[in-house]
Amino acid sequence: MRLAIVAAEKALYPVRLLCRCLEVSRSGFYAWLRGRPASMRARADAQLSVEIAASHAESRKTYGSLRSLRDLRDSGRKVSRKRVARLMRHQGLAGCRRRRSQRTTDSNHPFRVAPNVLMREFQVEAPNVAWATDRTYVWTQEGWRYLAVILDLFSRRVVGFSMSDRITRQLALDALREALVHRPGIVDLIHHSDRGSRRGDGWDNAVVESFFGTLKAELVHRWQFATREAATAAIADSIENFYNPRRRHSSLGYVSPMVFELQHATAALAA
After folding, report:
1. pLDDT recorded at residue 196
2. Which of 225, 258, 60, 244 is nearest to 161 (CA)?
3. Which residues, in sequence order, are bridge partners of residue 77?
4. Distance from C-alpha of 118 to C-alpha of 130, rounded to nearest angstrom
5. Is the Cβ–Cβ distance between 117 and 190 less than 8 Å?
6. Neighbours of 3 (CB within 10 A)
7. Edge-to-edge, what's the strand order for the sheet holding 130-140?
8. What is the pLDDT of residues 209-225, one digit of tens each?
9. Which of 84, 179, 224, 242 has the fewest Cβ atoms within 10 angstroms?
10. Using an 8 Å Cβ cutoff, are 203 and 149 in contact?
11. Helices (DSSP H) in 164-245: which residue ranges?
C-alpha cells in the first residue's frame, strides 16, 4: 500500500522524499513499479490518499482526520475515520493544534460592569437573537494590529469585524457598524461582550474566545506578518473566504456557518 502511495504522489513530491517518509526503499519501489501489480486495497488507498490530500489542501492545511472524513463522506465516500487517520499519517498530514490562549480582558477599570443578560446561554434558536463580541491582538514586524469581531451565536458566523493599530472604543464601534450593515433591521438583539457577571471571567464569552483560538492556530501562529497591512489582508481573507463559508464547525454538526444558516432558512421555508 505504501508503494502505491509513492506512485500516486510522485508527480507532486520527489520519490526519494516519499520513500523516506513512508519507510520503503527506492529500489523496492522501482522494482514494484516495473511489474508488481498493486492489490485492490492498495489501489483504493492510493486513490483515497489523493482525495485526502486534496481535502487537506483545500482546508488551508488545517483539517485533521475528522473534518477530512466529513469532506469525504459529503462527496459520497464510505470510509472510516481510522482509515483516514492512517492514510493522513502516511502522508505526514495533520490538523492544526491550538496553543494555550491568553486573556485580553482588562479588569482593572473604573467603569460600570454591565449585567450579564446572556448568562452563558450560547445556544440560540435563530439568527440575530444574540451576538457576542470581543477583541484580540496580532503581532507584525511593524507592531501590534488589533482585531474586534462580532459573532452570531446561532451560526458562529462572523457578522462584523474591524482592525486598527490602536485598541480603542472606535475599534469595537466599527465592527458593530459593519455587522449592522450586513444584518439590517435588527430588533431585540442581545449584544454580549466579556464584561459580564464577574470581571475577567473568560467563560462568559467562551464562543468568541474559541474563535480567536481557531484563528490564531490556523492562521496567525503559522505566519509572520511583515506589515500590519499584510496581517489585515490575511485575516480578512481567512474570515470571508474560509471561516464563514467553508470551515467545518464542530458545534454545527461539522458544516460551515454559512451552510448552517442556509440549512436553517431552507427548513423554515419548507415548514
Report:
1. 45
2. 244
3. none
4. 8
5. yes
6. 22
7. 157-164, 143-152, 130-140, 190-192
8. 999 999 999 999 999 99
9. 224
10. no
11. 169-182, 206-218, 228-238
Residue corresponding to grid cell 480603542: 168
Among 139-148, 192-201, 206-215, 251-260, which stretch is predicted with the lowest mean pLDDT? 192-201
Quick check: 228 and 143 in contact, CB under 8 A? yes
Terminal alpha carbon distance of the chain: 49
Domain assignments of the chain as residue spans, ordered by start: 2-91, 130-270
CA atoms within 13 A on the CB side of 155: 22
Of 51 and 18, the structure prediction assigns the larger pLDDT to 51
Q: Which of these CATH numbers, 3.30.420.10, 3.40.1180.10, 3.20.19.10, 1.10.645.10, describes 130-270?
A: 3.30.420.10
Question: Is pTM, for the whole model, over 0.70?
Answer: yes
Q: Please write down the HEC assignment for all residues of 90-140.
A: HHCCCCCCCCCCCCCCCCCCCCCCCCCCCCCCCCCCCCCCEEEEEEEEEEE
Dig out the grid coordinates for 56 from the structure.
487537506
Instruction: Give the C-alpha separation, 204 to 132, whole Å.
Output: 10
3 state DSSP class of 174: helix
pLDDT tops 50 at residue 109: no
